[in-house]
Automatic annotation (TrEMBL):
PANTHER family: AMINO ACID IMPORT ATP-BINDING PROTEIN, METHIONINE IMPORT ATP-BINDING PROTEIN METN
Gene3D superfamilies: P-loop containing nucleotide triphosphate hydrolases
A Pfam family this chain is assigned to: NIL
Name used for this protein in its record: ATP-binding cassette domain-containing protein
GO-annotated molecular function: ATP binding
Source taxon at top rank: Bacteria
Length: 340
């Protein structure tokens, strides 16, 4: 588990203005053990600085960083070096050594830790298997694709059995198919090894695919933070706007009068599959889908629809859906009955 409390980091000045740059401004967040946190936000928001502080590559001005309960900021010397070994880092960009094979790159941290050769060989084989690149052991980075190089970088970061894995833009510059193979490996680190993963990304597809939690940074501050499936249900949240289908372009149905128009977010198989037709049948109302659609967050189906209800018991049908965990937001009904 990673806990960040009131983390603040300024850099002396930025070259253009010569004023101090506040890269992180009182940032607090938590990543539960074995969860994947996606850290997103615009360029310059402080995402990399946050990852570098947690990796102990940058010392914050203020605040605490606890990994499994130990405050890392307070550590020095040998204790700091030992703590670093519990944090695996996949750096931004191409980070493999060109003159070493894939296996040689994965072995680096094990050599540095003084692991004897026979154990090293079997650990490297395990790691190559984990990232699905056993056959690339003798291959040099130049002969690997961008996605394969990133998977080797993940294997290297996991070599010393860290409890935490930090990946800074692990999929930038990769095409969608290759991105998927890298995300599968990060997901496997969590599911098979129980590692807590923090992924810095500008790509919401990464959050959609593997994140349990998400933190949105802007100007060095956390502006949204929580479980992805909770945040998508919050109307108007940044996470909801970027991950769920749009409902704004709801086509008006001429001459159809709705008694109630609402935006509904449904999370999970049961809700997505059955809630709307069941509500309509149970309360004898006409239910029209005016816009929106279905998507998937990780393994969970999520739908966002704008619906129109017609019939005496429309209000009761809506309340029944809320009681069954549908996230409902009423929208005004215009003269012709369609959402304004
Ligand atoms: N070593 C440094 N010296 C001076 N300023 C820095 C340094 N590192 C980061 N900054 C500044 O701190 C702010 C946050 O930068 P950071 O790289 O953490 O943002 P980011 O969200 O990761 O951006 P990007 O998505 O572009 O990588 C920026 O204004 C940046 O210019």
């Amino acid at each position: 588990m990673i806990t960040v409390e009131n983390l603040t980091k300024s850099f002396r000045h930025d070259q253009s203005s010569r004023s101090d740059v506040v890269a992180l401004d009182d940032v607090s967040l938590e990543v539960p053990a074995g969860a994947v946190l996606g850290v997103v936000g615009p360029s310059g928001a402080g995402k990399s600085t946050l990852a570098r502080c947690i990796a102990l590559l940058e010392k914050p001005d203020r605040g605490a960083i606890r990994v499994d309960g130990t405050d890392l900021v307070a550590l020095e010397g040998a204790a700091l070096r030992a703590a670093r070994r519990h944090i695996g880092v996949v750096p931004q960009g191409d980070s493999l050594l060109r003159q070493r094979t894939a296996a040689g790159n994965v072995a680096l941290p094990l050599e540095a830790a003084g692991m004897p050769a026979p154990q090293r060989r079997s650990r490297v084989a395990e790691l190559l298997d984990l990232v699905g690149l056993t056959d690339k052991a003798p291959t040099y980075p130049d002969r690997l694709s961008g996605g394969q190089r990133q998977r080797i970088a993940v294997a290297r970061a996991l070599a010393a059995k860290p409890s935490v894995l930090l990946a800074d833009e692990p999929t930038s510059a990769l095409d969608p198919g290759t991105t998927d193979s890298v995300l599968t490996v990060l997901d496997r680190a969590r599911s098979e090894l129980g590692v807590t993963v923090l992924v810095v990304t500008h790509d919401m597809a990464v959050v959609r695919r593997i994140a349990d939690d998400v933190a949105v940074l802007e100007g060095g501050r956390v502006v949204e933070h929580g479980k992805v499936l909770d945040l998508v249900a919050e109307p108007g949240s940044r996470v909801s706007t970027s991950l769920l289908p749009e409902t704004d372009q709801a086509p008006a149905v001429p001459g159809v009068r709705h008694d109630v128009v609402a935006e509904v977010v449904l999370v999970g198989f049961a809700a997505v599959g059955a809630l709307l037709p069941e509500a309509a049948a149970r309360f004898g109302v006409e239910l029209s889908i005016l816009g929106g659609g279905l998507t998937r967050l990780g393994d969970t189906p999520v739908a966002k629809f704008r619906i129109g209800l017609t019939g005496e018991r429309s209000e009761s049908a809506l309340k029944w859906m809320v009681d069954r965990d549908a996230h409902v937001r009423r929208t005004p009904v215009s003269v012709d009955g369609v959402a304004a």
